[in-house]
Amino acid sequence: MDISKREAGPYSRHVRSLDGLRGMAVLAVMASHLFPGTTADRGFFLRSIGSSLRFGATGVDLFFVLSGFLITGILYDSLSDTGYFRKFYARRCLRIFPLYYGVLIVLFVFTPWLRIHWQHMQWSLLFYLQNTNAVMPLYRWHAGRVSIDHFWSLAVEEQFYLVWPLAVFLLRSRKKILWASVTLSVAALLLRLSLAFHHTIFHVINRTTPCRADSLLIGAMLAILLRGSLHDVVLRYARPVFLWTVAITAGLNLLRIAIERHPDWLFPFDASYLALRYTLFAFGSAALIAWCLRPSSVPRALFERPVLRFFGKYSYGLYVLHLIILSLVLAPVREWIDQHTGHKIIGVLGGAVVIFLLSVPAAYLSYNLYEKRFLGLKRYFEYSRPSHAASKTETAAARKAVSST
């Protein structure tokens, strides 16, 4: 259709359940970090907690899919807007840069006290290239008393934001954007499979943008499908797709455990599992997002709860700050509790509570006292109001979709 007549997409407006979903994602990531591995010396109970909460890392996959979904929707809906690139990048920078670079400045200033050995990593961090440094990747870099290991995911998103707006602008039509998303997602999966079978280090498979782009692109697919004739079909099948994805993932995990105990059964399974799991997590996340958009659905009711929406509102600050706080505070807190109680379980649980109680106020204060000052500048980069001259078909589809959100 004529770009000048494009109606705003059905999910251009704020969707409360997605705030709650974002809140669940950040809580899952925090949980996986608050009980890191919970080593063997802490007993069966704590090892079980640590093993269970490792799946909290899938919150990162959910963040990726959410980002791809929301960003692609914004880009597609604003194709007819003057200042397409300027407005998009200005709004992204105002949301992301202040906290990210603010944290880096603080770390640079306090380098001597925190005993940080940058080893030239600061240059990668300044340009969002921390996930591309094969010589000294973040997961092998020990920054003194501070951990910013989780910043790799911010680099993946920023690199995606750098190229995807141009792709959407050039492709323009829903069909072309959808097929590009499908093609590039398959390419990312095949790349992971190839690298895994060639025993490439985990960092490259797990943290580089070409290997992880499918999570963002699957979110992009969902955004495009919900703006077309398949809208109702996508929402109708969201629940079974999500449940089947969970079942398949669980089955693969059980198979992985069995093969680890009997390595002579089959070919090495870790490689294919490592490559496939991100695609499964991404499809499950996309299905969960679509399920949240269905009227009267259980996930929608759950994720519209104020407590989850609260954590969703402050999810960016929580994600950026919690691991820094953890790396500074967790070890001495656990040691103090262990010494005064003699119970390692209390030390682990108490340490997690302390980190949580420090991280939430830190994110709240960061948002309200610092980040909001920059977010207020978004008013100078508002997108134009949608055209009322849209075709009858697209207008009807958009109205129907909006009524269901």
Number of strands: 0
Class derived from helix and strand content: mainly alpha
Report the sheet with the most strands, covering strand number, pairing sense and barrel closure.
Answer: none
Put simply, the count of helices is: 17
Helix content estimate? over 70%
**How much β-strand is present in the residues?**
under 5%
GO molecular function, one term: acyltransferase activity, transferring groups other than amino-acyl groups
Keywords: Acyltransferase, Membrane, Transferase, Transmembrane, Transmembrane helix
Organism: Edaphobacter dinghuensis
InterPro entries: Acyl_transf_3_dom, Acyltransferase_3
Could you explain how this protein is built, in words?
- The chain has 405 residues and is an all-alpha fold.
- It has helices spanning 16-34, 43-53, 58-77, 84-109, 111-114, 121-126, 152-171, 174-197, 202-207, 209-225, 231-261, 270-292, 298-303, 306-313, 315-341, 344-375, 392-403.
Give the secondary structure arrangement, pairings included.
Layout: H1 16-34, H2 43-53, H3 58-77, H4 84-109, H5 111-114, H6 121-126, H7 152-171, H8 174-197, H9 202-207, H10 209-225, H11 231-261, H12 270-292, H13 298-303, H14 306-313, H15 315-341, H16 344-375, H17 392-403
Features:
disordered C terminus, 17 helices, about 400 residues, about 0% strand, mainly alpha, disordered N terminus
